[in-house]
Amino acid sequence: MPRPPWLPxxxxxxxxxxxxxxxxxLIIALLDWTMAGGFRTISWVVLAPAIAxxxxxxxxxxxxxxxxxxxxxxxxxxxxxxxxxxxxxxxxVVVGGALAVLACVVRVRGERRMVHMQDLVEITRHxxxxxxxxxxxxxxxxxxxxxxxxxxxxxGDFYDIQPGPQGTRVVLGDVQGKGLGAVxxxxxxxxxxxxxxxxxxxxxxxxxxxxxxMERHVRYRVGLGYQDDPRFTTLVLVAFPPxxxxxxxxxxxxxxxxxxxxxDGVRALPPGDGLPLGLADLSDExxxxxxxxxxxxxxxxxxxxxxxxxxxxxxGEFFPLLEQVAEAVAEDPRAVExxxxxxxxxxxTLRHCAGYLxxxxxxxxxxxxxxxxxxxHGGE
Length: 380
Fold this sequence. Notes:
five-stranded antiparallel beta sheet; 18% strand; elongated
């Protein structure tokens, strides 16, 4: 049974929270025994099962209630007849103990339900943001997700890496809105990405598949009557071709442009000139183009959602991402590595907004691994 996290009273893996109501019971009995002038405190033993109901399990609370009634009876009968609290006090202790047991049953059921819900949230989180093995797809990578809703722990921001015969593809997206609708849209897009990124040879075809998936998802949710569901998603697709490590291909659906972080500086990729996923019908220009972007060995791509770029401080100023990263890299060139880079952006964002996130935040840093680059050059 789960224990309150604020009371980790355990010895060698065994809970000793029962010592608190027992100690209270003994203190009350001792006070009653030593109190002069006939002032009786023995009926206060009803507090012991009440404390047990908040800290212990059901059987521990039952034990505390029975022990409280027993101590009351034994000690009350040691006093002269005219000083005994008698039957009214005994009824108080018995009824109080019964109510404590009932309260404990309700509390334990609530805790078990909460643990079950937390498990479901964690399963959903791992489905949306699946763990990525080290070196997955020949990339060194690091990522962090910060949920604005600390209870839900997952929202509409997502990322993933999918290796395949055509190279490794990377996605980072931000679904419009929050809540369950945003999560279901993210799951729909991730399912399509994980399958199509493996099979589709061309990045523009993968982009078309994602656009169609978003449109189908919106129609489906509207058909169910969810009129306020998310209607679009900003998203960045990045492809690492297997045959040439000098560049990457990028498709940007109206998202924040990624940063290329190198030991000698930081540069932003061209801004996304296409509409977000799901809004292609609003333009005659079609989907955004596939752009080739030079990426030298040792350079890292940094992709973030607007939880970073739109984080504000007390004065309403946005977080200066590019400047902060450039300053950190100038001070320590090792900051270009994915792990330190992600921690730098995460900590800087939280400091800037004083720990208050108004939106979900995803941060992903990727670069070709040294081993993958060495094998490519060795093959040449």
